Structures are given as C-alpha cells and as structure tokens.
Amino acid sequence: MSELPVGATRRQIIDAAVRLIADHGFSATSVDQIAEAAGVAKGSVYYNFGSKADLFTSILTEGITRLTANLRTALETGPEPTPLERLVTALLRQIRDNPAFAKVVAAEVFRTGRDWQESIGLIHDQAMAVFAEAVGLGDPDLDPLDARVMGSAAFGATLVAGLEWLTYQPDRSPTDVLAAILRMVRRA
Amino acid sequence: MSELPVGATRRQIIDAAVRLIADHGFSATSVDQIAEAAGVAKGSVYYNFGSKADLFTSILTEGITRLTANLRTALETGPEPTPLERLVTALLRQIRDNPAFAKVVAAEVFRTGRDWQESIGLIHDQAMAVFAEAVGLGDPDLDPLDARVMGSAAFGATLVAGLEWLTYQPDRSPTDVLAAILRMVRRA
Fold it and tell me: In this protein, which residues make up the domain named HTH tetR-type (chains A, B) (predicted)?
C-alpha cells in the first residue's frame, strides 16, 4: 500500500470504517477490522486519524460538511422547479451513492453521551439550516422555528424513504422513488 | 426489589436498557450497567431475558408491536380529519413519551449484520404497512409500491422532526410542532 498517496489511504480507511460501522455499530467495530477491510496496516489507521473515536468524528464531520455543501449548491440551482425539490433530489442521490453513511447519520445524529456529540451537533445544524431555508424561501411570514421543524421533516422523509427503498425495495427506479417522496413532501 | 411482581422488574430492565442504549449504543452498554440503572441484580437481567442481544430483540419487537397497535387504532379513529394526520399525531406522541426508544429505532432499523436484524425487519414491515395504508386510503389508483414509499416518507418526517424537536427545541409546544409537521407532510 506504500505506493498510494496519503489521501487515498485516508479514503480507503474511511470507506471501510463507514461500511463496518453502518452494519455493526461503532463499539462493535474494531480498528483491526477496519484496517483489514481497508487493506492497510493497523498503525496506518492510528497514524492518519488518531483514535477510533477520532476517526469516526472525522467521518461524520467530513461527510456532513460535504453533504451540506452539496445541498447548498442544490438550493441555488438545478433542474427541479423549487428549492425544496432540488434538496430532496440531491439528498436522495447522496443516500443512494453512500447508503452506509446515511445509516450512520440516522444512528448517531440524535444520540447523546458519545464523544463526537458536540461536533455532529454543530454540523447537523448547518445541514438542517439549508432545508429550513428552502422551506422558508418565498414565504417571509413563516416563523423560522416552524421552518426548522418543516425542514427537518423534509430531511427525515427523504432519509427514511431513501433507506427504506435501498433496504427493502432496491429494484425500484430512483425516478419512481423520488416522485413518490415529492408527492408526500409538499408544502400545504 | 424482591417484592416487585415479575412484570415490574421486566419493565424496569427494559426502561433502563433503552435509555442507556439510546445514549451509548448497544455494544457500549453492558449488562452490569443495565442492572445497576434498573436497580436489579445482574442475574435478574439474564433470568428475565437471556442474553443482552435477546433483551434488545425483546425491546425492539415489543416496542414496535405496541407502536403498530397504537398506529392501527389511530388509523381507525381520532379527532384529526384524515387517517394520515391521525397517524402522524399518534407517532409524534409516542416519540415524545419515549424519545429513547425512538432513537434506538432510528439507529437500528436500517442496520444489517446485527443479531436482531430479522425480527426488526418483520415488525418494521407491519408499522410501515399502517402508514402505507393511510396514504392509500381513498385513492384506489395509487400504486401500492408508491404508497409504501410515501408512507415511509411520512413516518421518517415525523420521526426526524420529532427527535429534532426534543433534542434541539425542547421548549416548543407539541401543538406547534405537530402543526408544522402536518404543513409539510401532505399529499400533493
């Protein structure tokens, strides 16, 4: 593995860790297992990330930061007619491309008592803010607290319906699934 | 604790285990911690439930079975005008009354590679079927697969917005939160 650039090693470790943690949970996944699945030496995991908790914090913060950036781009531009539809579409695409990360987020985002609680809370806040912004756009009278609840409802609808699709109806086309979600998630 | 009836001991163990697992995860929670938090002897946990995995399987199947029964009642009757609104209301009430269980469901329902995967899959199916039925009621032309996706979207919207509320905006009134979710989750 020594011929790989550092960035590629980090990526292999992250991908292996997300897959294992999505299936078995953080505490049931060992650094040995992550190193083996990534095809790197155990020392390489510690060298690149510090502890297992630090690795997982990196995974969550990097992943949600990237997700938030993608959502912000979708908020501004895309083929769907409304900002909210563009966000739902972009989020569903991310879930399909990386279901393991979506499972980990669903598992961790509301836990308390974990080492990475604070950092995920801050980043989660930014992702939810994009959805709240989409809900509030064009409706200056909407209470920001209501926009926040509505935004998290749209986020949750897409997350759960997306994982439901991939776990239980994987043969359905993304277009059909997206259309069904958008029929449900619509401002009254 | 010997004066308590068996049902009460089981309930204490379940409540303590759900709280601990919601905060720290299944693998990071020990039977010692569960027994201590429940105020029972460690042997009592094994006597009532078998292994820690068996305890957690009992928690998930009993909890989702009770949830499904409550949802089915709400589907039939309640003050809200539509079946879907009654389901969202009933689910939000359950999340408020037992947020720890809601967190555990969010964490486990899409995992693979856990001992309780199969039983939670079956029970989850029944809970989602109630939502799909509510979405499909009065619309005989709706594709059942679409109803399923839409139902899981409504379930996910309520779950995530409900946990978001309790975790990040706990001072808001349940009425306001419910109204905001229902503004978002509405058939187009």
Answer: 7-67
